[in-house]
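Researcher: Please translate sequence to C-alpha cells.
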Amino acid sequence: MSADASLLTAPGAAFELVETGIRGYRCRTFRHAPPTLPEFFDSLNWRADRECLVYGGQRLSYADVWTRSSSLAVALRQHHGVEPGAHVGLAMRNLPEWMIAFLAIARLGAVPVLCNSRGSSAELAHARDSSGCVAVIADGRCGRELARAGASPVPWLVVADSAALGADGERDADDLRVARAGGAGDFTEFLQRGAGCRPPAVRVAPLDPAMILFTSGTTGRARGAILSQIGTTNAIYANLFSGALVGRRFAARLGIPFEQLAARLPQACQLLVFPLFHTSGVHSGFLATLARGGKIVLMRRWDAGDALALIARERVTQFPAVPTMLWDLVHEPLEGAPDCSTLANVSTGGQGLPAGLLAELVRRFPNAVPGTGFGLTESTGAVALAVGEDFLAHPTAAGRLLPTTEVRILGPDDRPAAAGVPGEICLRGITNMLGYLGDPEETRRTIDAEGFMRTGDIGFVDTDGFIHIVDRKKDMVISGGENIWCAEIERALLANPDVQEAAAFGVPDARLGERLVVAVVPRPGAAARLVPADLQAQLGEVLAAYKVPREILVRATALPRNLLDKVDKRLLRQQSTA
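Model: Translation complete:
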C-alpha cells in the first residue's frame, strides 16, 4: 500500500480499515461504510437545491428523486406486496426512472434484479422467471419484448422515454401500446398511488442480498450473481477512496491541504454511458456519484459530438467509458469543439486502454486525469484501480489492488504460482458475491472453502502491487465493452438443424477492441441453406443485438481441433485474420 493510501486508511481517517470475520474468513472493510444500502441512502443529503439527474429536458433535484422513490416504494409495497427480500426486475435503458425505481426497491429492503435492457424476449423472460421476480419495471422496448414472451402472472409496469422524440418517440409509443396490450401497467399512474406517503423503515442484515446482476458461464446461460449489502456499500467506498487518493496527491502538488482543495471543488458531475445493468454503471456511475452528492447526466443514444456538447453544457467532471467511445471522442474535430476543460477524469476498464488512445486522450483533454480498473460482476465491480500518475507510470497494468481485496494467483496445478508468474487470478474480499442464484454447485466451483473466488482471468501481480491481465481463461469476447459468451452464441446456432458445428471467437478490432466472428459447418446436404444473413437474423430473434456476430464464416471442412479434441479457436482466429 502506498504512503498516501496508508494515511487515508489509518485509524481515525476517513477510510479507516478494520478487519471482520463476517464472511466466515478475515477480510478488511471500511469502518465508516454503512453496512446496508437503506442505511447508506439515509446517510445522504437529499437537498432540494442540488441537481441529481439530467436527461433530455428533465432536470431532477435530490429532493425530487427522493420524493418520487418514496411514492414508488409505498405503491410497490401496498399494491404488489414488495417486502424485504422480494425480487423486483428492472429492465430499462439508462433512464431517471431506473434510478428512482432502484432507490425505491432498495429502500424497502427488497432486491433489484438488473436485467439486460438490450436482451431479447427470451433473455428477459429468463431473467424474470429464474430470479423469481414479484414485479418488473420496464421501458418501452423491454416491455414489448416481455409481451412477446407471452403471458406471465408477474405484474409489470412500463415507463415512457421522455427524451424519445420524432421517429424514436413514435417507436417508443408503439412499444408502450404493445406492452400495455400485453397487460403492463403505466408507471406514471402507478407512481401517483403512493404520492405524499413515506415508506416504512426497514432492517436488513449486512449479508442480505442487495441486488442481482446477470453474468454468463461456460454453458452460455445467464446466471444471477447475488451481491451483498455490505459488499455493495464497501464497493461504493472503494470508489470514493480512489478519488480521495488522487485528490490528496493533487493537493500535495499545489501545496495546500486536501480539505482545502475539496472545499473549492465544484459539484462532481458524471456523464454516465455505462449501462446501469452493468456493475460499472450501477456502482461506479450511479451509487458512487450519489455518495459524492454529484450530478448524473444521461444520454439517450451514444454520439460523440453530443457527448462533447453535454460535457461542456453540464460542466461534466467525470467520464468513464469503454475504449470504443473514447476513440470516438478523440476523433471529433478540434476546430469549433465545445469547451471541455471541466473534465477532470477520463477512465475505462475491462478491455484496457491502448497506448495510442492514452496519448490521444492526454492531448485532447489535458486537464483530465486518465484511469483504468479491473473487476467483474461477481466482485461487485473494481478490485484494482490506477489513476493519474499511477496509470501513466504503469499503462499496461489493470490497476493497483484495492486495500479491501486479497489476491491469489494459481498455476495450472491449482497451487500458488511464483511471484511474477501468470496464473488464474483468484480474489477474496468483502465485495465478493454471495453466490450464484439457484446454482450452489457452480458457486462451490467458483468460490473455494477459504473464500477465494476464481475470476477466469490469467494474470500476475508485480512488486508494486499492480495487477496485469495477460489472457482470458473464460471463453468470452469483449466487444465495445460488452461481455459476449461464446457458448451462448454457439448454443443458439446449434439450434438450427442445418448447423453441424459452430465456434464463436473474437478477432482484434481497432474500434471495438474485439469483433465477434463465428465459423459454422453445415450438416451434409445443407450447405446451400446456410446463408450468413439468414443465420444473423435467426440469432437476432433469440439474442441481444450486440451478440449477433458481424461476420459468419461457412466452412466446407470440419472445425480444426487440438490434441485434446477441443475446437482450436486460436487457429480459427489466425485463419480469419490471415
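Researcher: Any highlights?
Model: DSSP finds 19 helices and 28 strands in the chain.
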